[in-house]
Design a protein that fits this description.
The complex is a heterodimer of chains A (189) and B (176). Chain A is built from seven helices and no strands. Chain A has 189 residues and is mainly α. Chain A has two domains: 144 residues, no CATH class; 44 residues. In chain A, helix 1 packs across helix 4, helix 3 crosses helix 4 and helix 6 packs antiparallel against helix 7. Chain B has a domain of 103 residues. The two termini of chain B are 38 Å apart. Classes of the chains: A mainly alpha (189), B mainly alpha (176).
């Protein structure tokens, strides 16, 4: 494995304002899945993490209960500015969007059965699914030279998408195998 | 609207669920549904509408959906209590887990674990998109929209919001 990449923002600390605004954006843009936007903003725009570190952080979050995207928010905030950073990032993610969502949603709920609205929801969710798949493929790119990575990504995909096993079962079933393989590879290297 | 004790009971139940919601909050949705239906707070129809609307709102979908439930049960205070119960306990756990993970960053065992676990995560993200694309068994036009979104996202620098908008517009005209 290559050396861990140095944090790109090492010399200039990120301000709390920047953190707040970044996760406000992730939240407001996050139709049908904030992960797409979290990766785009954290990795591509701000370069607060690289693809690998982002994928690792997501891994930690997937092993924990709760909304993974909130987990990413807590981890990025905590990495950049400690506890106060975590609180700021979560506040950016939740405060304003929640207020807007609750007011707007309360209004829309009165028209939820409207057929045209149902059609729009269908088109939106099909496109959102595509964005999520593309985000996964992007995260896979740095690993494409290692065939065991592709194998375990495929197994996790199959376990979740094709068999519909509970997530915890898939993770606890595959993680020991994957760790064993990585351990053997690391011993040989 | 119900008595304040209903909001407290709902928030306590949500806090318990959010602490065990491995794999994200959707995995405990059936439990929430049973809980609020058994108490007679929210009808099946309302519950389904809460879900659909929270999915198209920007922002934290599941937190918002639980807030709609809380709003129905106890008004604005109920909505706030439900939101806090949904994201509060996991936030504390995420923070502690990340600190621990970060402290041992340079240990050899952690490098092996990182290398081993990342592929699983990536597979699960792609699976999430696949499951979403198949949800409700849509026809081939929806599959074309999904595939188009994948290609545009990977091959161009287009802002994903435009891709979503295109999906919504195609849906509005009945193409999906």
């Amino acid at each position: 494995m290559s050396q861990p990449v140095e944090p790109l923002s090492a010399d200039e600390p990120v301000t709390l304002g920047e953190l707040f605004v970044a996760f406000l954006k992730v939240s407001l843009c996050g139709f049908g899945g904030g992960l797409v936007w979290a990766r785009r903003i954290v990795v591509e725009r701000q370069q607060w993490m690289d693809e690998r570190e982002f994928a690792e952080t997501l891994t930690i979050c997937q092993f924990m209960p709760g909304p993974n995207i909130v987990g990413i928010t807590v981890c990025v905030g905590s990495k950049l500015r400690g506890a106060i950073g975590a609180v700021t990032a979560v506040a950016g993610f939740i405060l304003l969007p929640w207020t807007i969502g609750l007011s707007l949603g309360g209004f829309v709920l009165q028209y939820a059965h409207f057929a045209r609205l149902q059609n729009i929801l269908g088109g939106l969710s099909a496109a959102a699914a595509g964005l999520l798949i593309a985000t996964g493929i992007r995260l896979l790119m740095p690993h494409r030279g290692r065939w065991t990575t592709l194998l375990f990504a495929a197994l996790a995909f199959a376990g979740m998408a094709l068999t519909r096993l509970p997530l915890l079962v898939v993770l606890l079933g595959l993680a020991p195998l994957s760790i064993a393989v990585a351990g053997i590879e690391s011993a040989r290297a | 609207m119900n008595s304040p004790s209903a909001s407290v009971a709902l928030a306590a139940h949500l806090a318990m669920l959010s602490s065990i919601s491995f794999g994200g909050f959707p995995s405990v949705l059936p439990d929430v549904h049973n809980f609020v239906a058994a108490n007679g707070w929210v009808s099946d129809r309302e519950f389904a509408d809460f879900f659909a609307v929270s999915q198209v709102m920007p922002g934290p979908n599941m937190i918002l959906m639980m807030s709609f439930v809380g709003l129905k049960v106890g008004g604005i205070p109920g909505a706030i209590a439900s939101a806090l119960a949904t994201f509060g306990p996991p936030c504390v756990m995420y923070y502690m887990a990340y600190r621990l993970w970060d402290r041992f960053r340079d240990m050899p065992w952690q490098r092996i674990a990182r290398r081993a676990l990342a592929p699983l995560t990536i597979g699960l993200v792609i699976a999430g998109g696949y499951v979403m694309a198949r949800a409700g068994d849509p026809g081939w036009p929806a599959a074309v929209v999904t595939a188009g979104a994948v290609v545009l996202m990977l091959r161009t620098r287009i802002n994903p919001l435009w891709i979503l908008t295109a999906g919504g517009v195609l849906g509005a005209f009945g193409f999906v």
